[in-house]
């Protein structure tokens, strides 16, 4: 439900941020381990419907989480907290994983953007944005749950 300029709540129209807000374990798409703001930014730039991005990210997250130890052993972790570990992976990583997940080219691009936006948000919060922007020129990002 959204709120109009006059304060009316109109049923049937929901904002992406409302859909991503935690409201229990109802099985609805959450967007994996990706920050909600990063999802909204990626959805604005992606060539897929914003409503499908959280579902795509959930599918990608399940894939990544099942291989967490491989990422920890094989890739550079540039940030970790209680919930996630952020890894720099080779260019083309999401193209390969997208094939495994049977994503279209546009879906792969949307997932790639969301993971990159997550890193940018982490970088801004940790005063490492320039460092991470430079890394994104030669690598991609995979955010794995801890």
UniProtKB/TrEMBL annotation:
Q: Where is the DUF8048 domain?
A: 33-145
Q: Name one Pfam family in it.
A: DUF8048
* Location of region: Disordered: 1-32
| UniProt biased composition (Basic and acidic residues) | 1-22
Q: Which InterPro entries match?
A: DUF8048
* Protein name in UniProt: DUF8048 domain-containing protein
* Classification lineage: Archaea, Methanobacteriati, Methanobacteriota, Stenosarchaea group, Halobacteria
């Amino acid at each position: 439900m959204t709120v109009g300029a006059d304060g009316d709540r109109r049923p049937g129209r929901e904002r992406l941020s409302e859909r991503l807000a935690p409201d229990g374990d109802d099985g609805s798409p959450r967007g994996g381990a990706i920050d909600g703001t990063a999802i909204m930014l990626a959805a604005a730039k992606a060539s897929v419907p914003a409503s499908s991005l959280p579902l795509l990210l959930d599918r990608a997250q399940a894939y990544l989480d099942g291989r967490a130890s491989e990422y920890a052993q094989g890739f550079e972790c540039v940030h970790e907290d209680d919930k996630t570990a952020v890894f720099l992976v080779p260019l083309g990583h999401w193209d390969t994983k997208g094939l495994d997940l049977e994503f279209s080219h546009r879906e792969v691009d949307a997932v790639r953007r969301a993971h990159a936006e997550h890193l940018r948000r982490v970088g801004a919060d940790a005063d490492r944005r320039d460092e991470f922007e430079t890394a994104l020129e030669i690598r991609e990002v995979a955010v794995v749950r801890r």
